[in-house]
Design goal:
The chain is α+β, with helices and mostly antiparallel strands. The protein contains 4 helices and 10 strands; from the N terminus they run ααααββββββββββ. The protein has a 5-stranded antiparallel sheet with strand order 8-7-6-1-10. A 5-stranded antiparallel sheet has the order 5-4-3-2-9, with no helix packed on it. A hairpin with a 3-residue loop joins strand 4 and strand 5. The radius of gyration is 36 Å and the shape is elongated.
Length: about 200
């Protein structure tokens, strides 16, 4: 009966500290281990982490190569007097009169009369190049909305279309121009992109 009365008093008590002090089984802390003498050897996992990071770098490099190969194209235009080059939306109009502008899904540059380079923008833009182009690089940055053309040999930017909106798949656009009695008979050749340079 005495224990029941004590229990009743403890239950109604607002003094929680008194409850903890009253029962020794709750008031004593469990024994703890002294961790000051335990050592973690970093080298036990260091080799695995280094191997994993190296493997991840190799895989990332392979993926970047694939991405760059897909996005950067080089075209040999050496010996040409007339050509068109760029990228187009897959859904472009292929019949009748074609306006090769970005609004119509064309991002292209061209050569006419052996030395007249232009870009098809809202209006035709004359391009100034230092020497006759022999190899042109075409790069598409989908995230930034940019199509850029480079003189591969001079490592110089020729022209960039900016603020582009790519809402569908893009395809390469190549036109070797008319033969012009053999003056423009050289082929346009798509080259493998070399990323080691």
């Amino acid at each position: 009966m005495k224990k029941a009365v004590e229990l009743e008093q403890l239950c109604c008590s607002e003094d929680h500290l008194h409850l903890l002090q009253r029962f020794s089984s709750i008031s004593s802390a469990p024994p703890t281990k002294d961790w000051t003498k335990v050592r973690v050897h970093q080298r036990s996992y260091e080799g695995n982490v280094v191997k994993a990071v190296a493997q991840l770098e190799v895989e990332l490099r392979k993926e970047m190569e694939k991405l760059m190969e897909a996005e950067l194209k080089k075209v040999d235009v050496k010996g040409k007097t007339d050509w068109d080059l760029g990228v187009v939306r897959d859904s472009i109009n292929r019949k009748g009169e074609i306006r090769a502008t970005p609004q119509e899904g064309f991002w292209t540059i061209w050569l006419r009369n052996e030395n007249e380079y232009r870009a098809y923008a809202d209006a035709s833009v004359r391009l100034h190049v230092k020497s006759k182009l022999e190899k042109v690089g075409v790069f598409v940055d989908h995230e930034e909305g940019v199509v850029s053309f480079y003189d591969v040999d001079a490592a110089a930017l020729i022209y960039s279309f900016i603020g582009c909106s790519f809402t569908e798949k893009l395809s390469p656009c190549f036109s070797p121009g008319i033969n012009d009695g053999g003056k423009n008979s050289a082929p346009m050749i798509i080259c493998a992109a070399n990323h080691s340079k």
